[in-house]
UniProtKB/TrEMBL annotation:
GO cellular component: chloride channel complex; cytoplasm
Name of the protein in its database record: Chloride intracellular channel protein
TM regions (residue ranges): none
Keywords assigned by UniProt, alphabetized: Chloride, Chloride channel, Cytoplasm, Ion channel, Ion transport, Membrane, Oxidoreductase, Transmembrane, Transmembrane helix, Transport, Voltage-gated channel
CDD domains attached to this UniProt entry: GST_N_CLIC
Catalytic activity: chloride(in) = chloride(out)
Entry text on domains: Members of this family may change from a globular, soluble state to a state where the N-terminal domain is inserted into the membrane and functions as chloride channel. A conformation change of the N-terminal domain is thought to expose hydrophobic surfaces that trigger membrane insertion.
InterPro entries with a match to the protein in the record: CLIC, CLIC_N, Glutathione-S-Trfase_C-like, Glutathione-S-Trfase_C_sf, Glutathione_S-Trfase, Thioredoxin-like_sf
Domain GST C-terminal: 93-256
Keyword Transport: yes
């Protein structure tokens, strides 16, 4: 699959077509994903929910269009398409869908094997891995009091340590390797195994925000000793489905500049 800019349909919109085949198959559903635009009104903006759906569609290998929507100048036709609804939203064969969780479930139910891969995790616990990190990050990054900073940073670190432990523990049925002290360790690069799943599509966009913003505004990075988290992030960065759907670091920094206070 490749992603490329194919043209601007409207002064406030940019379109990208992603496809897994050289020619559009007549049996393919007509899908258009509308995502939040960046500061220039065209590039991908700060929105983990937009990236989540973008990743799902790309991983499915289905033909689809992505349109970035400038929230400052939302075109009238989009106001009619999804009145009062900020991106992301999606049209599937002309039907408009606006609930992110429902869209993810719908795509998994509609785009099924053998034509499209299943993205559902085989291990239910993978859906919960790292689910407290973003809340801890938000508390840490929006804090104004110096005396509370260390405590909030420690809470964020603890959430990352919990994720590291999950990634280190072999999954049921997985053949482990022998780690330090003879402890069995997982070899898997992603939450649920060797391939990206819906669980990764949910977590990775949030982790991207966390790592970029904490580095910029709090000088904090994922510690080197959390090697399974670091392996996970490196594995994700090597996959086009993640790397080419990420907003630029500058977009995240701009978005959080307004909500990240100086410590006093």
């Amino acid at each position: 699959m490749s992603v490329g800019r194919v043209g601007v349909h409207h002064p406030t919109r940019a379109a990208v077509t992603a496809m897994g085949n050289n020619e559009k198959d007549a049996r393919e559903p007509e899908i258009e994903l509308f995502v939040k635009a960046g500061s220039d009104g065209e590039s991908i903006g700060n929105c983990p929910f937009s990236q989540r759906l973008f990743m799902i569609l790309w991983l499915k290998g289905v033909v689809f269009n992505v349109t970035t929507v400038d929230l400052k100048r939302k075109p009238p036709e989009l106001q009619k398409l999804a009145p009062g609804t900020p991106p992301p939203f999606l049209t599937f064969n002309g039907d408009v869908r606006t609930d992110v969780n429902a869209i993810a479930d719908f795509l998994e139910a509609q785009l099924t094997p053998p034509r499209y891969p299943s993205l559902a995790p085989k291990h239910e616990e993978s859906n919960l891995a790292g689910n407290d990190i973003f809340a801890k990050f938000s508390a840490f990054i929006k804090n104004t009091k110096k005396e509370a900073n260390d405590k909030l940073q420690a809470a964020l670190l603890k959430a990352f340590q919990k994720l590291d432990l999950y990634l280190a523990e072999p999954l049921r049925g997985e053949t482990p390797v022998q780690g330090a002290g003879g402890r069995p360790e997982s070899q898997r690069p992603f939450l649920d195994g060797d391939e990206l799943t819906l669980a990764d599509c949910n977590l990775l966009p949030k982790l991207h925000i966390v790592t970029v913003v904490t580095r910029k505004y709090r000088g904090w990075e994922v510690p080197v000793n959390l090697r399974f988290v670091r392996r996970y992030l490196e594995a994700a960065a090597s996959r086009d489905e993640f790397a080419h759907t990420c907003p630029a670091a500058r977009e995240l920094e701009l978005a959080y500049a307004q909500v990240t206070p100086e410590l006093t």
